[in-house]
Amino acid sequence: MRQKSPRLAVRAIIVEEGRLLMVNAWHEAKSPLMCAPGGGVEVNASLPANLAREVYEETGLTVEVGAPCLVNEYHDPDSQFHQVELFFRCIIVPGTARPDEWCDTENVVTLRRWLTAAELAQVPHKPDSLAGVAFGRDGISYDPLEPLMT
Asked: What pLDDT does residue 149 have?
């Protein structure tokens, strides 16, 4: 049996006023897990262009993509799912409309929350290293082969 290739995804670390923007990872009926906005990359577009597109699709926000800050890998041995995620620090472009209501074009994201570090600690989320990267560490972190838990 041929192994599946890893899926490449990009995610945004957007922190404003000490709060991190998070979205639901799956429909609530499947899991309460939350993650940073973003998603799979499409060919023929840069990683920052892919991330700006994904953030807009999921949140309605226009972002400026900055430096990478985390590389994370998820895996689920049972399904052979393996995803490599590249996280970038982002800021919301000044003057961007911040819609109260937004419909994700793929109808996956139905919940957006701005969470403090203390609130994030109480919410199921991935990756485990997210709070440290978002609220503390500078530079780039690497989180190898984190088990995907729902």
From this structure: 60
